[in-house]
């Protein structure tokens, strides 16, 4: 009965729409729908138009004489409409809305990748569009930093979004861009939740190799979170709630040329303690000062634990004209934890307050100018400030420790793009940046204060050429970037390569390569720094104890797609030099050693993805080897990297039925390397370790489930809602993420950090 009503409504709607179009056509005199005219033009000039159906909705044009040239015809349509007709080659013509950038034409997306809203393009990049995101196992909302961990070659060694490992690299070796602004904080709840509201984003682009020459840093990978560039046609808004936070966003058109976008998200953890929050709290704060102080041996108790986080962002867009565009964006990310430590000393009750705050403020201004259809420029200024502060009271020793890590990054960038002809495009630019980092440590008993500030000014010039064959089967991008690092007086040339050859409609080859470098990294001085919660601090290269990190990477991949079947395979090798032991988080015999070295990793990433109607299944598999190379450690012999994972397998599927969507998936990886203790366990007053990273933890295994139900609250006003249920680690598998040893009074104790157990979450969302 319902299906009949829907069919009747659809038939009536189509009839009504056709009737209205006919009336409109009559009222427009000789004008007709462009969509009706294009088939005739294609036959007349032997060309093919490529466009999104919605682009031509209700677009009326005046028919032109058959004797005019194709260029004259298209120029006339551009004058009459808000459309652009771009000749890709002698046969293919792309039709887009005039305000879109030319760059979108180069990003030809091939297929959905794993799930709806995830796709891959011809250059090997992976794109996630939160607006179109469907569902993944254990994830009902498009948390971008959780979502990308389902991709081959990308994982998190400690199950957090603040420690994304791309092909064996540490998190600080990734460049994270929000609206082209560098970010230095990626997680809420100190790593369990992405710090970026996904509903505010237009798309997220992940690059593992073959990075554009316009981007520096990020020797392991790049994650770009892009926002809208132009005014939307109508109001877009939404709000949601789950067992951790509440959020809302709105994109409000002030007029046809200006729009304001706002977004806000805040935890509910300080208002109500949900079961999900309790599980998250125990997971993230295990073996930290906040839990270690709550031991009977210390005669202390911890009370008044107060934790919350929020993020808020805004963007102002001004489409000054068809060729001029101005954008201003702002983001504030904040985490705060405080607690009270109580103890009875000398028969007196004493209480002290400790806590930690983490913040990233970012603001950017961008001006785009299209001088003509072939030449455009972009000028960008941005500032990003990261701050981490912790106050830690030791009540039994009457000592207060204050620590701060402050980073200020500002930059200006000029980018140009020139389309030489149908086959060649050249992009060039210049970037200047200044990064200042301050580290403070202040102890009350005994009195001690250390404050150090380092500043580095960097210059970069870059240029790259894009080549597209007439058939679009051959694509080549070759670029070079020159970086001048001021403080360490170093200059580097960094070539980049991205080549794709399509041999048939179903099979293609992809060759990627890059040289990259970065002057900033995260280090750990002591494992209990910053309460042991966020113990990493940013630091600048100084050319001696902290060198410039340099990398080189090459990969060869193949892709086969046919009949909703996608198979990809990519072999890679990557070498990274200039890392320090302090940046790797050693908790064995190298914990207090300052050494400089590198690592080399190589492997293969595979993906199988098949769709049958409403059912979608995928399997990703990565096999790799990742070894350290420190000449001063382990007698100069290579040994396994702390995040060396030999095998990593993801198997999942989704099924859609009416307004329901279900997803189930399992994740398996071999255990991470660890250093065992020998016999005797103590020698010369120190732990007697065996060979570094010669053992492995137990294999990691987890199964997740999620489901959503979509409701239409108002079809006329286009108001929809979605209810979601997710269960992380359905079988409550007790996975060990890390294992290390402590020495206390000649007694060695084993410490194990465990992963999340079974963790349910509920969500409700309304979008319009």
Short description:
By secondary structure, the chain is mainly beta. The chain has 7 helices and 47 strands.
Describe the protein in words:
The chain is mostly beta strands and 768 residues long. It has a domain at 236-767: Beta Barrel (Maltoporin, Chain A). The protein has seven helices and 47 strands. It has a 22-stranded antiparallel beta barrel. The chain has a seven-stranded mixed β-sheet with strand order 6-7-8-15-16-11-12, with no helix packed on it. The longest helix has 26 residues, at 2-27. The model is unreliable at 1-29 and 102-108 (pLDDT under 50).
Features:
768 residues; mainly beta; 22-stranded antiparallel barrel; seven-stranded mixed β-sheet; 56% strand; disordered N terminus
CATH topology tier name of the domain at 236-767: Maltoporin, Chain A
CATH class label of the domain at 236-767: Mainly Beta
Question: In whole angstroms, how far apart are the ends?
Answer: 27 Å
**Helix percent band:** under 10%
Topology (elements, then pairings):
Layout: H1 2-27, E1 32-33, H2 34-45, E2 48-50, E3 60-61, H3 70-80, E4 83-87, E5 92-97, H4 103-106, E6 109-113, E7 115-121, E8 126-128, H5 144-147, E9 154-155, E10 165-166, E11 174-178, E12 181-182, E13 187-188, E14 193-194, E15 203-207, E16 221-226, E17 236-242, E18 245-253, E19 258-267, H6 275-284, H7 289-292, E20 300-318, E21 324-345, E22 348-372, E23 375-394, E24 399-419, E25 424-443, E26 448-468, E27 474-485, E28 490-502, E29 507-518, E30 520-523, E31 537-540, E32 549-562, E33 565-580, E34 596-612, E35 615-629, E36 639-640, E37 647-657, E38 660-669, E39 673-674, E40 677-683, E41 686-689, E42 695-696, E43 700-714, E44 719-728, E45 736-744, E46 747-754, E47 759-767
Parallel strand pairs: 2-5, 11-16
Antiparallel strand pairs: 1-3, 4-5, 6-7, 7-8, 8-15, 9-10, 11-12, 13-14, 15-16, 17-18, 17-47, 18-19, 19-20, 20-21, 21-22, 22-23, 23-24, 24-25, 25-26, 26-27, 27-28, 28-29, 29-32, 30-31, 32-33, 33-34, 34-35, 35-36, 35-37, 37-38, 38-43, 39-42, 40-41, 43-44, 44-47, 45-46
């Amino acid at each position: 009965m319902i299906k009949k009503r829907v069919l009747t409504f659809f038939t009536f709607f189509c009839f009504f729409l056709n009737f209205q179009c006919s009336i409109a056509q009559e009222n427009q005199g000789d004008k007709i729908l462009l969509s009706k005219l294009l088939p005739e033009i294609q036959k007349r000039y032997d060309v093919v138009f490529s466009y999104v159906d919605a682009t031509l909705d209700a677009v009326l044009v005046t028919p032109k004489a058959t004797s005019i040239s194709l260029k004259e015809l298209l120029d006339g349509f551009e004058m009459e409409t808000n459309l652009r007709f771009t000749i890709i080659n002698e046969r293919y013509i792309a039709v887009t809305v005039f305000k879109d950038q030319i760059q979108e034409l180069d990003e030809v997306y091939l297929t959905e990748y794993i799930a709806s809203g995830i796709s891959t393009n011809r250059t090997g990049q992976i794109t996630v569009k939160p607006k179109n995101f469907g569902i993944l196992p254990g994830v009902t909302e498009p948390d971008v930093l959780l979502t990308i961990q389902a991709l081959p070659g990308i994982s998190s060694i400690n199950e957090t979004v603040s420690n994304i490992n791309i092909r064996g690299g540490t998190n600080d070796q990734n460049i994270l861009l929000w609206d082209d602004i560098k970010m230095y904080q990626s997680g809420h709840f100190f790593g369990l939740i992405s710090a970026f509201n996904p509903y505010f984003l237009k798309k997220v682009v992940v690059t593992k190799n073959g990075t554009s020459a316009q981007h520096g840093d990020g020797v392991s990978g790049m994650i770009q979170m892009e926002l809208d560039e132009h005014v939307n046609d109508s109001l877009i808004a939404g709000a949601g709630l789950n067992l951790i936070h509440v959020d809302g966003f709105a994109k409000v058109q002030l007029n046809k040329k200006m729009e304001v976008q706002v977004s806000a998200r805040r935890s509910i953890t300080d208002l109500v303690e949900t079961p999900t929050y309790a599980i998250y709290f125990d997971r993230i704060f295990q073996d930290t000062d906040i839990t270690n102080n709550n031991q009977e041996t210390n005669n202390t108790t911890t009370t008044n634990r107060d934790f919350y986080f929020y993020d808020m962002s805004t963007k102002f867009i001004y489409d000054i004209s068809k060729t001029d565009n101005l954008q201003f964006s702002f983001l504030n990310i904040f985490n705060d934890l405080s607690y009270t430590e109580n103890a009875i000393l000398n028969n007196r009750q004493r209480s002290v307050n400790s806590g930690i705050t983490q913040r990233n403020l970012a603001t950017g201004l961008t001006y785009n100018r299209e001088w003509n259809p072939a030449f455009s420029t972009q000028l960008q200024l941005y500032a990003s400030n990261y701050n981490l502060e912790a106050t830690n009271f030791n009540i039994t020793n009457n000592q207060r420790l204050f620590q701060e890590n402050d980073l200020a990054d500002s930059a200006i960038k000029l980018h140009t793009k020139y389309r030489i002809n149908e086959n060649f495009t050249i992009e060039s630019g210049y970037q200047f940046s200044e990064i200042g980092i301050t580290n403070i440590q202040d102890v009350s008993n005994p009195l001690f204060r250390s404050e150090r500030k380092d500043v580095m000014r960097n210059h970069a010039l870059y240029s790259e050429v894009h080549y597209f064959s007439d058939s679009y089967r051959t694509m080549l991008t070759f670029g070079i970037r020159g970086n001048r690092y001021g403080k360490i007086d170093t200059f580097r040339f960094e070539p980049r390569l991205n080549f794709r050859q399509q041999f048939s409609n179903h099979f293609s080859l992809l060759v990627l390569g890059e040289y990259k470098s970065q002057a900033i990294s995260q280090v750990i001085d002591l494992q209990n720094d910053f309460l042991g919660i966020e113990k990493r601090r940013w630091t600048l290269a100084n050319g001696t104890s902290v060198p410039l990190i340099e990398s080189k990477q090459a990969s060869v991949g193949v892709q086969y797609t046919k009949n909703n079947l996608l198979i990809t395979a990519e072999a890679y090798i990557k070498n990274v030099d200039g890392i320090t032991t302090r940046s790797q988080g050693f908790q064995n015999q190298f914990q207090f050693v300052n050494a400089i070295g590198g690592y080399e990793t190589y492997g293969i990433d595979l993906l199988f993805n098949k769709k049958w109607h409403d059912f979608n299944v995928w399997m990703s598999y990565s096999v790799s080897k990742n070894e350290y190379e420190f000449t001063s450690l382990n007698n100069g012999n290579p040994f396994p990297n702390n995040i060396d994972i030999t095998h990593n397998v993801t198997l999942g599927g989704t099924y859609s039925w009416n307004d329901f969507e279900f997803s189930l998936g399992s994740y398996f990886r071999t255990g991470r390397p660890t250093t065992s203790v020998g016999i005797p366990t103590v020698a010369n007053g120190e732990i007697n370790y065996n060979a570094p990273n010669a053992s492995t933890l137990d294999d990691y295994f987890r199964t997740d489930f999620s489901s959503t139900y979509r409701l239409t609250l108002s079809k006329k006003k286009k108001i929809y809602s979605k209810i979601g249920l997710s269960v992380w680690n359905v079988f409550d598998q007790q996975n060990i993420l890390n294992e290390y040893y402590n020495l206390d009074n000649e007694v060695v104790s084993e410490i194990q950090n465990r992963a999340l157990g079974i963790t349910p979450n509920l969500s409700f969302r309304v979008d319009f």
